[in-house]
Here is the input.
Amino acid sequence: MQLQLTHKTPGGKLVRLQIEYSHFDVEKVKIAGDFFLHPEESIGDLEGALIHFSRDISVERLMQKMDAALAIRSAQLVGIDTRTLATLICTAIKPTESTNDFDY
Amino acid sequence: MDHAKWRFIPPHAQNAYMNVALEDVCINAVAEKKSPPIIRFYNWEPSAVIIGYFQSLEQEVNLQACRSDGVDVVRRRTGGGGIYQDVHGGLTYSVVAPDSFFPREIIPSYQRVAEWMITGLKELNIDAQFAPINDIQVHGKKISGNAQTRRKGVILIHGTLLFDVNPEKMFTYLRVPDEKIKDKMIASVKERVIGIKHFGVGSREEGYAALKKGFLHAKEFEEMELTSDELNAAEELVEEKYSLPQWIAQR
Here is the structure.
């Protein structure tokens, strides 16, 4: 299954997330948008941290995973932050009582 | 470090692929100390859509309209948003210098170049302000947007100074999320964005002359066109990277 969502931070940048997920897990997340990330190659590290994780992961844990990935190259994310990204992802993929109701 | 000697490359037109490749060539030239730090003014011929490094090509660009109107589509190395550069449109510039020339923090480094731009705009009697993260505004309206990359110990900051605002044309080539709100988006751009033409600037040349004064104020510089070696290196990069779907459609 796949879902896409778009978020614009107030007065800030736009981010588009493409999330591939299964019944229990998120398979991968693709992050696009008009934000800045220095160095730019860190986007691979960031997306690499968002592969195969449980859909009931906490915002804090997901944020930690992303922060650790950005630390690999001392990367700076500008115009969006990892807490916002983690919150967007967790809210979107949070398992419901019946996944049949999970309809995007 | 404005006391260093700079190299000024006067306005010249290239296609979009060459323009993005030339940014790499300039970074390499400065990193390898083959060139002093560079201030380059340039135009786009033909018109082009340039998307930010992290943007989705499919979601941001109306490829069919670009193809049928002969508008180049290219992905640049820097983040930020997609822009449409008309062949008769905005003024573009890039600044390439060792990273020691700029503040380490991202926003103050944009501010440094913004100050040069603001000095230039004063020559045109336009009172502008830096608007973090990466914009310059006049009376709350955006007149310039910038982006940067840092590699090999060098910072590249590039951007556009708007000459005229034509959102109808812009949204022909850049996608709107919903065709039903296209008119609203066009109206919104007209409210939020302004070009130097609005202030009575008659030509791009007049704009570039003022920018040159602002960017080179109190700097020692020599005017030096791109060399044939630099142009050849850019052509190679176009063939190997910037014109390839693997690069342009990577996201």
Q: What stands out?
A: Residues 35 and 74 of chain A are 17 Å apart (CA to CA).
